[in-house]
User: Fold this.
Amino acid sequence: MDTDVTEPRVVVGVDGSPSSYEALRWAVRYAGLVGGGVEAVAVWELPGLYGWSGPAVDMDVDEEETRQKMSRELTEVLGADSAGSVRTHVVHGNPADVLLRAAEGAEALVVGSRGRGGFARALLGSVSQHVSQHARCPVVIVRCEEK
Assistant:
């Protein structure tokens, strides 16, 4: 009998916001409970490009900068040992779309309730709201305690 022995995947969106840090901590705890691995996904996109000309930035620089920042943040939030066990992905694109693709076949998709943008009083950010309505796996939305 051939059985699939892959470990459960827990995908978490990380964008540098306090809410995403809480989501990361939650994802690591949950993965430990289900014997799974954590995949942290950071998505970057260029601000709106207007006009007919190409972007005036080196897209590789933005991606490398994001990778370095993500690595530092994982270590700060989780500690060096736990951060080393998290698989990271830095992807260019629309955050909601990228997270939905990354979460295909996952045990769960974990996101913060609000990211870096948007209105501070909104209960849900646009990304968390979108993925909660369209994901094919359970979605956990983690709120950050107000200080």
